[in-house]
User: Fold these one by one.
Assistant:
Number 1:
Amino acid sequence: MIYWTSDCIFRYISRFTKIFRSLKQHQEFLNLSKTPSN
């Protein structure tokens, strides 16, 4: 049985937000590279 402490939850949330942020930045980078420069 796993007991969810607030510290553990916080750790998971921070890790998830980090991953999500990096993915978002990567997506923006791809979109920027896709758009042709006039």
Note: The chain is about 75% helix and 0% strand.
Number 2:
Amino acid sequence: MDAASNLSCADPEQLGSRYYLERPLGSGAMGQVFEAFDLSLSRKVAVKTLLPECKEEQWVQRFLQEARAAAQLEHPGIIPIHDLGYSADERPYLAMRLVQGETLGAVIQRLADGDEETHRQFSFSRRLQVIARVAEALQFAHDRGVLHRDVKPDNILLGTRDEVVLADWGLAGFSKPEELGPAADPESRATGLSADGQIVGTLGYVAPEQLTGESAGDAHLDVYSLGATMYQLFTLRTPHSQQGTLSDVVGRILTEEVPPADDFLHAHQGRVPRHIAMIIEKATARDPAQRYGSCLQIAAAIQDYLDGEAPAVCICTGTKSLLWRMLRLLDNHPHAFVVGGLLAVLIPVLELILILMLW
């Protein structure tokens, strides 16, 4: 969702007989979100309404598609839908749980601005935990045949109670839309393009195959977008430059690999550790076959890194690689490079001696 600064609630209104719209929270391509009061249950909620200019049937169906997608996904990392209704002018609206907090996009902006408090709060470890929780929510959706198709920082909400929530399922696609019944939107099949050939998703985060319409309609779309989000969270820049014409940007996405995340040195956070960069690199591979096969694999790779687990073991002794652990130390303490370099040479020799002794 975009910032709410362009919205106005100078004339608060009652929506139907149940909701009182209090203040705007954000706006997207087809809807706007308000903080509202549920008169029936006396509680705060978020209400998303369809924009007045989006009355065409295709927009209505896409809005209802969001309700159908989110209604199937009862997960702590996905905002639950409370109610679906229609306003006096027959525009649909959704009532959902209100998450008090901010978007990941807002956090990234403060990090990019060099805000010291934000850099203290969002260490590399905490950033990894955020991505892992989004990955788990996406995996839950994928297991139920739902793709998000618009994963990006502005659609990830960080609540004041430590919630990490994936929002805005308005572009969701279904791997088996026929199971939704005759009301299913023809655009609900989980491909990369809409029925009229328009790009589904946000340009800075879409997978290359979303731009060409060659997507198989599987988890690789969301894997890439989550990887692109992770890339920006760690490097504070999008995977590909957004400068130039639309054609220029699309051309870069289609023909260029994402620059390694550890290529950049930031004044307030240093360089991205190599093993984190490797996770990002695999998630954002241009070829879908080279990416992680699922978001669960991303979450597992992150957890292994956080736990200090080695990605491989010594094939002779079955012990975790001491060399890998030393590289982890260098990731977190780059000033130890000289000592670490010597140890990186000595440790394989010691491992070889151990193997010979056990032979």
Note: Residues 101-307 form a domain with the Transferase(Phosphotransferase); domain 1 fold (CATH 1.10.510.10).
Number 3:
Amino acid sequence: MISARNYFRSYSILNFGMLICLFILNSCSYKNISSDNIKSNQDVEMIVFLVMKMHKNESTGNNSIILLSSQITEGKIKTTNKNEIYSENYLNFEFLKDKKRIEQFKTEHPLYRHIEFQTDTGLTSKSIVIDSIEFFERFQLSQLPDQIRISEKRKDKETLLLNKIPIQ
């Protein structure tokens, strides 16, 4: 039989173990950043997550982009190769604060893809154009933006402003 003394000792150890697990789980969660946190500390590293939808407008021949959702969290991306684009078609993301550019990133154009695939004769590459796509981007920032300006550069065309999106 278990004595009352041993029962309470094992119960205390179990509670202590649960308390440590709860502390570890709580420390691993991410923090949302509010504008109050940023105003108090200007050097906070943050990651901006954007989910967007882009489609080709058949009547005008231009592309359009909309923001489906955004999330800003405290954190740091391990590597940021923000302007190493090896494509003739790309998107340019400008993050603005009070109408001044605080950061700029270039990403591969989601509608114009260059793919490689296996055929009977070996590897083949091909450029394809997609009509519509939902895609995700993440960016490293040190200041909280109030607007994103998205433009596109396509092969043999002028840079075209697609959208200005306010960030709350």
Note: The longest helix spans residues 4-27.
Number 4:
Amino acid sequence: MGKHIPFLISVCFIISFFPFSSEAQNDIYISGQVVYASKTPVANVNIIVHRTQDSLAVAFTQSNQQGKFAIQYQGQLPVFISASALGYERMFKKIDSADSASAIQFVLNRGIKVLEEVIVTYVPKIQVRGDTTSYKLSSFLAGNERNLEEALAKLPGFSINEQGQISVNGRAIQKLLLEGDDLMSTNYTALSKNMSPGSINQVQVLDKYLNDRMMKGIEKTDDIAVNLTFKKEFKNVFFGDILAEGGEGKYYNGVANGIFISKPVKAYLMGSANNIGRQSSFMSYSTFNPQSTLAIPYNPMLMSKN
């Protein structure tokens, strides 16, 4: 019984579309056979009778093991009869009279469909190449991370202590680099606590990191650093975030930061102002080549309100 279930379901589906008519109906008998080009019979081919005026289905059956089929129903001629099977072209024949309704033969042809080329590029969540382990940051985020620090905490092996120090597998990092350049020196928490993670493409852990690249392969070290690579749309443009908070009694807290990333020039600006007891500040970090870094932090009195 189980092998007939797909057939019964197909019959019920087709019947649901059958039209009802008050016109005079005649008993019509249609029979034939379905074969391959080699004349081998084809079983389980769907045979459907359609009205000529609107193509509605009025009868349905399937070919048997000998490829033969027979349909008897009440209706009118002419009609179309179709034969279809998975992987083969759907074929039609027109039945104009009772004489042409018997000994119908369908010869199935292989259906050929040219598919458009689809290129699938898969980037794994974690890649290891030599001393560099790269994490595709977006694969680990939920979307509610407020800053880079919260995003890094989602990566396997990463941890951040109360002071904002970043560690990987229990080892504190020495540098937080932007596209290979050291803007922040040891004050990377200004960046990690304020920068939004949405612009970051990969987070790379650099094992055996040396600040002097010329000494790589000569001097041995166990230091590690983290390098941030940026998405293409965030390069060569100035972007940033603004945090504005307010409360009762005219209390406020505001933080703004901006970043510019290009191959020769990288810059990070961060300013804050508030009247909730925190120190207001402005910091500017920039680099014009991999070996030259300028850091100028200062706290203007005009932005301090106690």
Note: The longest helix spans residues 5-15.
